[in-house]
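EI: anyone free to look at a 378-residue chain?
SC: sure, send it
EI:
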Amino acid sequence: MKRASSVQIFSFMEVAMFDTDKRWKQLGEVFVNNCLELKKGEKLMIAQYEPETWQLALATYEAAIKTGGFPQIQLKSEYLRRAFMKYGTKEQYTWLPGIEALGMEWADAYVALRGGYNLDIYHDIPADVLAANQAVHGKVSSLRWQHTRWLLSRVPNAAFAQQAGLDLETVTDMYFNSTLMDYTNGLKEWESWAKKITGKGNQLVHIKGKKTDLQFEVNADSWQASAVIRNIPGGEIFCGPVNNKKLNGTIYWENPGVLGGRLMPDMQVEWKDGKLVSAKASANEDYLNGILSSDPGASLLGEFAFGTNKYLTHFTNDILWDEKIYGTIHLAFGRSAPGGTNDSAIHWDVVKEMRHEGEVSIDGVTVMRDGELLFDSI
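SC: here you go
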């Protein structure tokens, strides 16, 4: 068999690492100048997950330098995390990574470029080990929230396209269309919708749909339209729930919950008088219950939101994309969004499909029916 020459190998690597699609550079500029608003002299930590995110890491790095910033790149991978849990002791996989924690204190801004990966990568990792390690990652996330202006983005690659059940070209175009959209005008519309439902005191939210009848209160003054300052693609209107005795009922998710690379299909959760009664799934139910029992606030609500980005049309089994799909809603377990008071190491969003069946009302006024947002008719 004829071997490839070193020149051929280098040419292949050069194509992979220096993609000529100008949209990467455009997006790097958006990340630095619009999302993070990096200033001259500020320090930026770029967490590059998986090799395929190199093009965007480089584009973000270049944009930060042009702004007068001081960027650093940190290489991360789910494959490294798997090795840590597979071969490490409990002392190791429950260890808070010291340099990563210090990095959150060092950086003024932080961006995580999370490449796709095989979701079956943790197939042989026990549920309790994965849950314990996930809790540690939650503590790192809390430091990120406390100390930096941060941004997360799931960057498409072949593994992500397979996860989404789409071809790479379609999923890449969907990514660029939804991240490079006209957010100025989009945000104006979303903010006008948020303003229409903003009030005082608490509001009662009622969700009805497939295997779902759930009620809970939210802080009426906490409704916000998300600018692209936390994750991108953007596009949601969110609020902080109030975890009191009015949290009652059941919610079912048509698409799997995803956390730490593990899928939990047919998730169904029930609360009564503000307390978790049961949490079920057709797979990985032990992992689900491990997460929800990881600390006192993990089983309570941290966020409720409507997806508003019409450029996102397909579920991908990734929360950073799916929570923004127009016609969906999502609830987060754990740490509260602004306006809420729940404290937890985790903040885990799970997205519910509403485009085929479902209704949401706020204080008795219907604001969503079968995936259509009705704010303009209020």
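EI: The CA atoms of residues 83 and 122 lie 10 Å apart.
SC: 👍
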